[in-house]
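Ligand: adenosine monophosphate. Inputs:
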Amino acid sequence: MDILKELENAERIGIAGHVRPDGDCVGACLGLWNYLKNACPEKTVCVYLEQPPQTFSFLKGYDQIDSTFQPVDPFDVFIALDSGDSERLGGARDLFFAAKKKLCFDHHLSNTGYADINVIRSDASSTCEVLFELFDRKYVDDAVAEAIYTGIVHDTGVFQYSCMSRDTFGIVGELIGYGFDAAAIISKTFYEKTYVQNQILGRALLESILLMDGKIIASCVDKRMMDFYGVTSEDLDGIVNQLLVTKGCEVAIFLYQTGNLEFKVSMRSKGKVNVSEVATYFGGGGHARAAGCNLTGTYRDVLNNLSGHIEKQLL
Ligand code: AMP
Ligand code: MN
Ligand code: MN
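Predicted complex:
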């Protein structure tokens, strides 16, 4: 796959990632945007994303992100990044399908192959890794490297998860040779929490429950609690990972309320359970060890549904 060849005849190119963009999504979109700026400065390249967390505002091109998703003339090529299905493109979905040619780069096991050309590598740590392996190093500069590094840091939990391969470490080694503050990216965008983020993390841990003899840990944050602390869903990132470190737990389930009897579900697994299968069954998706979906019902209903499917895999 030669990205630049696929874009040869295009004048206008669109890029988008998934709703509620995470580090990999923002890194991939801005990494590719900066790469194309270097490789083909004569082309118009637009990036569409829901407003990403401010912690990523140091990345070059952050201020160019369009979160309005206004209809425009069809793009010659539209590139979807880090999105396992087209629904996940949110406001950019229509722009994507209106384009003359549609490309997708991703690493989700659950990817449905919704583009004309799909580069899906579920063995890769991140979409940033998938992209970087295809980048011509001639056009990689500090800004590209910084964005790609940020994405890998986030999707690997700082080089920790099993999705880190020898290739990923090789890429990270190459990236830190560029001029950017690699240590600051880890502390500022991954570990640093605001006071209320830590408070609500504490509440979620305190109110967590164990199911299946401690093999499943679950917790839920409802609207009232979010209002009490004055937090948004962005402030809840990382809670599910903290639940999972509990000794003896195989799966962590974290829910937060999105509406009346509506929850966003995040699941994490230590390896025995493929949570992507569970999430896909309920209309979501993800990876074997990290997946999510949206469910309706009471907290108890949702937990019963999910734990039933998890239990089947553990038996
Ligand atoms: P999260 O738990 O939201 O951090 O997501 C974990 C993984 O599952 C990420 O790779 C997401 O892209 C994917 N994911 C989360 N929610 C959904 C959903 N509703 N539909 C499809 N994939 C999802
Ligand atoms: Mn993502
Ligand atoms: Mn990703």
